[in-house]
Amino acid sequence: MESGIKEKIKTLSEQYLDETIAVRRHLHMHPELSFHEYETCAYVWDRLDQIGITQKRKLAKTGIEALIHGKNPHARTIALRADMDALPIIEQNQVPYKSMNDGVMHACGHDAHTASLLGAAYILNSLRDSFEGTIKLIFQPGEEKLPGGASMMIKEGILENPKPDGVIGQHVMPLIDSGKVGFRSGIYMASTDEIYLKVKGKGGHGAMPHLNVDPVLIASQILVSLQQIVSRHANPTMPSVLSFGKFIANGATNVIPNEAYLEGTFRTLDEKWRTEAHVKIRDMVESIATSMGATAELEIRKGYPALFNEPELTAMAKEAAIEYLGTENVVDLDIWMAAEDFAYYSQEASACFYRLGTRNESRGITSSVHTPTFDIEEKSLAIGMGLMAWLAVRGLEN
Fold it and tell me: Which single residue of 255, 262, 273, 282 has CA 20 to 30 Å from 333?
């Protein structure tokens, strides 16, 4: 590797910051929902053309793979990933770059991820004669919606030809101050499964419960009993979450309905326990419903797996981040029970998923992701693109 490349990356990231902010704002103003990122895909494709990256192809309809070849391109390959989809949220920020698509908003920072990767692409393409190997850029659709764009990209060959020696992704983190990044080795994020349950009984007058099979009561009993899955069956040292956010029983004060409907989520960090828990959930639901005279229709939609940061690659990335930002600006992350479809890459290849700090309390930029007031400190995009470029170059060395 050519000496001084780190300083060149820092210089280019500062020089390209205004352009990257403009890209992020364009994407923020034109958000698109999962698997409908047609304009976003076209925009990214054109930006890659402007950068001078011509070896690219489309996958999963709205995803893009692009390659940057350094010297000796067959030496090693490092993949960098960004997601592009937005969320069905009405934006409440009063900013010049507010969403122009009613009811759709980049409330999870995917606009920042895509802009950062485009910035990294510009930097790496400018310095391609300074490193050996190939860098694969992954612009991915549909992170927010099952089955996850990552799984579709993998099925269509994103991890082949060339096969990456490491896959690196970053995600904004409003809990971390702008200027800092965070890493965690090993298990980091949870698997996620969706639970859909319909309890069918026999409705009737609320004053004559003996003539009915009350699905409201039975569904309530099931909901409470299911908490034992976590409190009495899960290993206390293994985080698990079983939560229900929807309970519909469309009766009235004196009307017991024929059925009740629940929706929830199950999350954990252990794939073996995940499979066992599905069986226990099903057994408990069916046994309680049957014992109380009702029937139950249960669907467990298996979602993203647990996300595992490969220790060697993550150690390299953390060390490289310290080299780039200083020890004081690199923090250790705790386990995060949210889910990410980057986990699919981590199941198939050495992977590292880290956090980019985007918080600025002095400017009121503190809102959590998936909220109508989410925003980022845009100066963090200099690190967003620069550090990604540096991690790719360092990853090619190993």
Answer: 273
